[in-house]
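Task: complex structure prediction.
Instruction: return C-alpha cells for all chains below.
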Amino acid sequence: MKHLLIAILLFTYQMAGAQTSVEKVRQYRSLHEGDMLKEYFELLSIPNHALDKVNIDKNAFFIESMLKKRGIQTKLLQSNTKESPKVVYGEVIVPGATQTIIFYAHYDGQPVSPEKWHPSIKPYEPILLDKSIEKSGKAIAFPTNGKHFDSEWRISCRSSSDDKAGVMTIINAYDALVKSGVKLKNNIKFFFEGEEEIGSLHLGEILDKHKDLLKADLWLIGDGPVHQSGLAMIDFGVRGDVNVDLTVYGPKRPLHSGHYGNWAPNPCLLMSKLLASMKDDEGTVMIKGYYDDVIPFTASEKKAFNAIPSVDIQMKKELGINKPEGGGKTLFETYEWPSLNINGIKCADVEDHASNIITTMSTATLDLRQVLGTDYLKQIELLKQHVIEQGFLLLDRDPTDEERQVNPKIAKLKIVKGGYNAQRTPLDLPISKQVIKAVKSATNNQLLLEPTSGGSLPLYLFEKHLNAKVINLCLVNHDNNQHSENENVRLQNLWDSIDQLASIMIMD
Amino acid sequence: MKHLLIAILLFTYQMAGAQTSVEKVRQYRSLHEGDMLKEYFELLSIPNHALDKVNIDKNAFFIESMLKKRGIQTKLLQSNTKESPKVVYGEVIVPGATQTIIFYAHYDGQPVSPEKWHPSIKPYEPILLDKSIEKSGKAIAFPTNGKHFDSEWRISCRSSSDDKAGVMTIINAYDALVKSGVKLKNNIKFFFEGEEEIGSLHLGEILDKHKDLLKADLWLIGDGPVHQSGLAMIDFGVRGDVNVDLTVYGPKRPLHSGHYGNWAPNPCLLMSKLLASMKDDEGTVMIKGYYDDVIPFTASEKKAFNAIPSVDIQMKKELGINKPEGGGKTLFETYEWPSLNINGIKCADVEDHASNIITTMSTATLDLRQVLGTDYLKQIELLKQHVIEQGFLLLDRDPTDEERQVNPKIAKLKIVKGGYNAQRTPLDLPISKQVIKAVKSATNNQLLLEPTSGGSLPLYLFEKHLNAKVINLCLVNHDNNQHSENENVRLQNLWDSIDQLASIMIMD
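Output:
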C-alpha cells in the first residue's frame, strides 16, 4: 500500500516535471525509514557518557563504520594526550567544488539517572513510543517488513535528540543525496565530537592540530530544538556557559538533630540562605556587576527576534508555569542576559531516606550562561565576591581544622572544567544568506532566524582556532527532554532535518 | 595472663571483704566479654529498618532467643492489625518483690545509605575498630581464645549505639546479676520495640492492649549518649518530634537551562528562598508564634542543667564549629526551645551527576522538635501558615494543571506519620531518687542529671496509656554517629551501661 502511494506520488512528480533535489531526498528517505531507524537504534543503544571510555570508543567506531559503509573516507582525530574521546572525521572531496562545509554533531550525551526515567524506558535501550511519555505515550513494537512508521512517533533514549540525532541526520542526508543521484556541489566534511557535554575540553587542541584538514567556508552545526511552534529554525549564535560546584560546611561529623538541633549550624540552611541571596523574586541576579558587561542585542537582532512567533503563552500552559522569571520579559528577551541557574542541590537525604540529623556539608551545582560581552571567568569572580560578602571564608578546597575554628561560615567553590563564552555570526553575511536560502528551499519558506539560542555550544572555539564561520541548524522537537530523563525525538523532526541538511550540502 | 589478673583482683576483693553486687557484675562481664560481643555481632548483622519486614522479624526472633537462653519467659506482642514489628517481651517475677521495673530499648534502626559509609565499613557487617573512623580508626580482627578486648575499641555498625546497645546491655546486665549469684529484689520485665525510628506508630495500641502485663513502677529506657565528657547521665525528659516533607514545584517537565534559564522558575531557588525565610542568621525560627507555647525550664531544672559541665567549648572544637546557632545560648539552654531542623534537601543532582537543567520539583524534609507546652500538630499549622505567607498555594498533594495556571508558587506539605510531644519526669520523685542512688552506686557518684535530653523518644505514650513513670539511662559514647554513617559504640560504654542497668535492676 505504501509503495503504491509512493509510486503515485512519483508519477505525479514526473507529470509535473523534474523532481527537485529535496523531493528526491524525501522520496529516498520515505522508502528507507526502516533501515535508517534500525541503524539509529544500534547507535543509540551504545552508552555515551564522555567519561565512559570503553563505550565512548564503541560509539566512535560505530559512527566511523556508518561513514565507511557509505563510501566516505574517514579518520579518527584525537588530542595529543589521547585522553579525549575520538573525533570521527570524514570527507568527500567534490571535483570542481569551490566551497567546503563541515558538518558538526556530537555523539556523547549527558549522564543518566535511570531511576528517574519512566519505568518502561531504560536510558540506553531505545524504544518507539506513540507519543511523548508526558502525554502517556505507549511503547510501539518496531515495525518490520516495510511497515509504516508514523511520523508523530517518538524514539526515547539518551541522546536520541541531543545529539546523536545530528549524527544520524547528517549522515543520512548525505546518503540520500548520493543514493538518489543528486550531484554534489560542495566539499562535504563530517566532524563528530565525543565530549561536548563535558565542555569540549580538547576541541581547541584538536582544531589547532588539524588546522588544514578542518579549513572550511562554513561549520554547520546540527544540534538543538526547533521553535516551539514546530517551525524550522536556524541559530546564528549561542550563549556561553560554565559550571561551578559550591559547597558549604556544617559540623565535621553528622549530628543527631535532637542533641544538637538549635545549636549546630546546619549546612542545608546555610546553602539555602546563600543561594537565596543570589537572585531576587523576579529571578534577577543580585550579584554586583553581573550584568555590567552585557552587549545588548542590535536593532537587527531585535528585529529578527520579533519575527519569531512568541511562545510564552504556549510554554506557560505546557509547562504549568503561572509567573516566569524575568520581570515581564519574553522568553527570547531573556536570552540577552547572562543567567545564573541552580542545576541541583544536595544536602543529606529526604523523605523515606531522611534521618533526623544535621549533616556535614551541602553542595549545589550552578550553571552561568554567558552572553556577548560577558567573560565566564570574570563572572565567576563576581560570584566569588558575592559569596565572600555573605560572610563566608571562600576556599578552593575543604577547610582545615584551624580555618573552621576562626570562621563562622566557610564555602568552597570549584570551577568545573570546560567553561566558554558566547558566540554570534551576523545574519547578513553572504554565507548566512546561502544557508537561509537552502533551508527555505526545504521548508516552503517557513523558516525562523534566531540571532542567538538560549543554549550553549563551544562555537567560539571554531572562530578562535580556525577563524571559521559557524551556523547552527536546529533539528529536534522542542519537548525532547534534552539533558534529563525520558529524552526523546519525534520522527518527523529527523525527516525534516535530513531534508534541510541535504539542501545545505548542495547550496550555492 | 588476663585470667591471672582477674584472680589477683578477686583475691584483693576477698581480702577487702565481700564484693558488692556491682563488683560481681563487673567481674562476670570481664570474664565473658568475648561471648557477649560474639552474640552482639550476630544481632548487629541482621538489618533492622522497621519497614524491612523480613529482617525486622529476624531481629525479634533472635532477641527472643537471647532471652530464652537466659531462662527468661518471653512473649511476642503485636498490634491488632499485626502490621507492626513485634515487641519482644520478657519477664522475671521475683517472689516477694514489691516493685516492677520494665526495661525498654528498641532494636530497629535508622535507614542506611551504604555509599556514605567509610569504604571499610558495611552498615550491617559489624567490625571492631581501634578508634573512631573520624580519628582514622583501623579494623581489628575479632580476638579469640579469651584474648583481650581493649575497652577503647569501637564496634561500627548501624544500631551498634542506637539502640541495639540498649538490648545488649539490658539482657547482659540481667544475665551478669543472675550468673554471679546476686539476689534479685524487683520484678524485671523486658520490652524491646521494633519501630521506634519510624515513630512508634503502634506503640500506644500495644500498651493499651497489654495494660495489665505492662503495669510497672518504672519504665527504664536504655538509649542515647552519655555526657560529652564521658560522665554517666540520666535523662528525665525528652523533646517531642515530628517530620514533614515539603515540596515545591517548577516546570512540569525538566528543561534545558540554556533554552529556559532566566525564564522558567527553578524549584531549587524556590526551595532555598522558602527555607531561608524560616530561620534567621542566628538560627532563631522566624515562623510566627513558634515559641508562644513554650513552658520554660523551672528553677530546679535550670539548677540541674547548671550542674552539668558545659560542653560548648569542647564540642565547638571537636565539630569544627566557630559560631553555633542560638545567639549565645549554651547547647543545653537550647533544649528549652522547639527546633526547626532541615534533615535534607533534594533538588536534581550535583557535581558529576549534575545536568544543565531546571528540574521539576524540590523536596526538603524537616524535623520539628517539641518541648513542654508545644503541640506538634499546632506547630505544623504555624509552619503551614508561614509557607502560605511566603506566597505559596499550599496543598497536601501534587498540583493540578488548573492550580498551576493560576498560582505563581505552589508547595505540598506532608506530615510523616508518628509525631509526638515532649515528656518530663520530675527529678525529685521517690522513684527518681531510687534510680539516681542506684546509678551513683555503679559510678562512684559521678553522675549527671539532665532534666531533658535534646533528643526524642515517644515517652509521653507510657504516661498517656499506662500512667507510668519514665526515666532514661544514657548508654553510649557521645561521638557515636547515631542516625548517620559510620555509627559506632565504644566498648567501655557497653561495660559501664551493664553495671548501671544491673544496679537499677536491684535498686531498693
